[in-house]
């Protein structure tokens, strides 16, 4: 195109000016298209470069780069204004326990040396806390008696002594390892430095000794929590065991926490955990409804429904039953053996009433989508937050979508404080308007469509306001497992795996119930001190 000098524009005819402007507009559009292509190319190269850097770090066995930064939606919406411009009224935060709640063990009066003529003006009091940590070695002389029949009677040791270690030392080791996240080596260094003659083998023995009583209480806590809680939040993380990859699943509410570790995180494993770890199978109405929802072949459903035996107490009996009906030999999709096993486990859960009216809140992982299910809003918003737009139009679309999701999330928080049918209908309609939009950004549109399809699970809180909007509590609870994995690696024995799950779960449960884990361990190990409520009432819902 021939350039026109600026001083000659006045001599151009209007038609020539119009043609010039049209050509310039065309060039600008071409430049915009070229810029968009270059921006997309740069974004792709940056992503590829970061992937290469991550691969180099992995090959060099360096720590991975930090995960994607959180959006902060939950914290930000705590300060969001309502439609009327007024701040959302949240309950005031209470101060933690202060020195006024401490029990004074002894009182010491300190005297001064005033000059002559001084007058007493009472006392100034100060509360000082201290811990006496010193080893104590006791020699027990056990009487021995020989009976007339030639046998021997030996005086019994006090309860709580394990391998030459007393209950106070046992409690300290449990506290340091499970609540303090200290490794066995560091515990040995601490104790030997204080004058205790102890080895790593003895420390490991203290961590896994008398586990049956704690394991039984942990299972009782889990059972009572499922039956007494209106909801549970679930999540999982990796956990190595015996040199192999495994997974730890967390179950919890505002009153309890339990952990279960196994080699798989499938739905079969999840349902077995809900049953307490033992596989029990029942073909009933709940199981048949599960099969129909999973699109199991009608012939398989009829064969299971018409069988004479419908209750199975062992895995071997159930597998033999599937083989006898010819279900194990079927090679079709979905896998009939897997779906039938999931359905029978779900039937056993219903038959035993383990879930009652409990809602399962998850991050949309497939193994958790059973029963009355709700989805985490933080994970839903994270899908949009993690998008990498290539141009300004896409960036604006993402920002607008995030802004609308944050605003709607704040409205759900307000609704939980004061539910009403009118407000519920209004939120349902607004949800459709937000997630039924089209932004001309294909990736974002597919995500909005996906969230729209999960409408019932995302809005479960409307019919059940007591259900949380996120699974942040589960992620916080799993940090203890992740920390232990990073510090101590994996577990080697089944006792070690059970000890980790049981003791971490009981420690978290005590924290939620405002019970001292120190006092709890002392009570269970027979140490004189405060009594802790029994395991059956540990997570019982408060009486109204």
Summarize the structure.
By secondary structure, this protein is an alpha/beta fold.
Written description of the protein model:
The protein is an alpha/beta fold and 544 residues long. Among the domains are: 160-257 and 480-532, no CATH class; 377-463, no CATH class. The chain has helices at residues 14-59, 73-76, 167-179, 184-193, 200-208, 211-228, 267-274, 285-293, 298-305, 315-324, 336-352, 377-385, 392-417, 421-435, 442-453, 455-458, 460-463, 472-488, 494-512, 517-524; strands spanning 144-146, 152-154, 231-238, 247-252, 257-262, 281-282, 311-312, 359-362, 373-375. A five-stranded mixed sheet has the order 5-4-3-8-9, sandwiched between helices. Helix 7 (267-274) runs parallel beside helix 11 and helix 12 packs antiparallel against helix 13. The longest helix has 46 residues, at 14-59. The relative contact order is 0.11. Mean pLDDT is 87; it is low at 81-87.
Count of DSSP E strands?
9
Mean pLDDT: 87
Looking across the biggest beta sheet, what order are the strands in? 5-4-3-8-9
Instruction: Specify Rg, calculated over alpha carbons.
Output: 32 Å
């Amino acid at each position: 195109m021939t350039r026109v000098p600026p001083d000659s524009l006045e001599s151009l005819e209007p038609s020539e000016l119009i043609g010039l402007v049209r050509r310039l507009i065309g060039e600008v559009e071409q430049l915009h298209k070229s810029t968009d292509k270059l921006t997309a190319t740069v974004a792709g190269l940056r992503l590829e470069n970061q992937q290469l850097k991550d691969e180099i770090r992995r090959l060099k066995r360096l720590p991975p780069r930090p995960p994607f930064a959180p959006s902060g939606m939950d914290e930000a919406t705590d300060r969001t204004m309502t439609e009327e411009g007024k701040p959302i009224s949240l309950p005031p935060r209470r101060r933690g326990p202060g020195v006024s709640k401490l029990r004074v063990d002894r009182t010491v009066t300190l005297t001064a040396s005033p000059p002559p003529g001084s007058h007493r003006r009472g006392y100034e009091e100060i509360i000082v806390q201290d811990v006496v940590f010193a080893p104590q070695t006791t020699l027990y002389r056990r009487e021995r008696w020989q009976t007339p029949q030639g046998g021997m009677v030996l005086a019994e040791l006090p309860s709580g002594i394990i391998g030459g270690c007393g209950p106070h030392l046992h409690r300290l080791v449990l506290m340091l390892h499970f609540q303090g996240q200290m490794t066995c080596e560091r515990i040995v260094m601490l104790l030997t430095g204080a004058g205790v003659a102890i080895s790593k083998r003895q420390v490991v023995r203290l961590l896994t000794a008398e586990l049956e009583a704690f394991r039984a209480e942990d299972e009782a806590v889990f059972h009572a929590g499922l039956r007494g809680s209106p909801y549970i939040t679930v999540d999982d993380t990796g956990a190595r065991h015996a040199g192999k990859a495994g997974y730890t699943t967390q179950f919890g509410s505002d009153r309890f926490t339990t952990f279960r570790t196994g080699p798989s995180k499938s739905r079969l494993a999840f349902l077995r955990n809900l049953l307490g770890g033992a596989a029990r199978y029942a073909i009933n109405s709940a199981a048949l409804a599960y099969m129909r929802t999973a699109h199991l072949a009608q012939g398989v459903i009829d064969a299971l429904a018409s069988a004479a035996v419908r209750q199975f107490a062992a895995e071997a009996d159930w597998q033999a039953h599937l083989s006898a009906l010819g279900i194990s030999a079927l090679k079709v999709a979905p896998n009939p053996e897997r779906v039938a096993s999931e359905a029978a486990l779900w039937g056993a859960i219903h038959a035993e009433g383990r879930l009652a009216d409990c809602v399962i809140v998850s991050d949309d992982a497939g193994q958790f989508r059973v029963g009355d299910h709700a989805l985490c809003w933080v994970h839903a918003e994270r899908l949009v937050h993690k998008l990498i737009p290539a141009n300004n139009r896409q960036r604006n679309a993402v920002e607008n979508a995030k802004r609308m999701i944050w605003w709607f999330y704040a409205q759900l928080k307000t609704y939980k404080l004061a539910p009403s049918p009118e407000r519920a209908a209004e939120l349902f309609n607004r949800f459709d308007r937000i997630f039924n939009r089209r932004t001309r950004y294909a990736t974002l549109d597919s995500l909005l469509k996906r969230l729209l399809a999960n409408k019932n699970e995302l809005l479960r809180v409307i019919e059940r306001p007591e259900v949380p909007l996120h699974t942040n509590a589960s992620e916080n609870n799993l940090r203890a497992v992740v920390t232990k994995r990073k510090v101590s690696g994996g577990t080697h024995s089944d006792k070690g795996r059970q000890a980790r799950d049981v003791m971490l779960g009981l420690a978290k449960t005590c924290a939620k119930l405002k019970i001292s884990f120190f006092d709890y361990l002392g009570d269970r190990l027979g140490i004189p001190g405060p009594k802790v409520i029994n395991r059956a009432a540990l997570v019982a819902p408060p009486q109204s």
